[in-house]
Design a protein that fits this description.
5 strands
């Protein structure tokens, strides 16, 4: 289902989390759960994976992750502030020790001059207080390509957050 490169990255994430005794959760918007899908593609991942939140709508971001309505109204659902709030909310709403969030515009359409198709914000929150954020501009390369690139970048961000 996933490319060999994604499976390799997912395996590395699980091995690193296992070695550190960490449990993982994701809070995904534009990927619709693909990152957690890649992690759970690996047999035995249940000792590391806690849960996933698929928060495609603004309402879901508010209700499931506690993203403040002001953040969405003032900065938008596709913003650094929203990605950070989603990651923090994912930690609060789970037993995970590390949560990755992604929110972006996969296209086609939906982009603007300020927020073009291919823009993705992601954040990784760790219970020790670590918070990493990345902004990606993958370009208007097609929905599948944006979502796949987001999965790869998200898995790499988790690895970076674990050190």
């Amino acid at each position: 289902m996933f490319s060999p490169d994604i499976i390799t990255l997912a395996t590395q994430v699980l091995d690193a989390a296992r070695a550190r005794g960490l449990h993982l959760a994701t809070a995904e918007s534009c990927t619709g759960g693909l990152i957690m899908g890649a992690l759970t593609e690996i047999a035995g991942s249940s000792d590391v994976v806690d849960r996933a939140f698929v928060t495609y709508t603004n309402r879901a971001k508010r209700e499931m992750l506690g993203v403040p309505g002001d953040v969405i109204r003032q900065q938008g659902a596709v913003s650094e502030a929203c990605a950070r709030a989603m990651a923090t909310g994912g930690l609060k709403a789970s037993a995970a020790s590390l949560t990755l969030s992604v929110t972006g515009i996969a296209g086609p359409g939906g982009g603007s001059e300020d927020k073009p198709v291919g823009l993705v914000h992601m954040a990784c929150a760790v219970r020790d207080g670590t918070m990493l954020h990345e902004k990606h501009l993958f370009g208007d390369v097609g929905r599948d390509q944006v979502r796949e690139a987001t999965v790869v970048a998200g898995l790499k961000l988790i690895l970076r957050a674990m050190g």
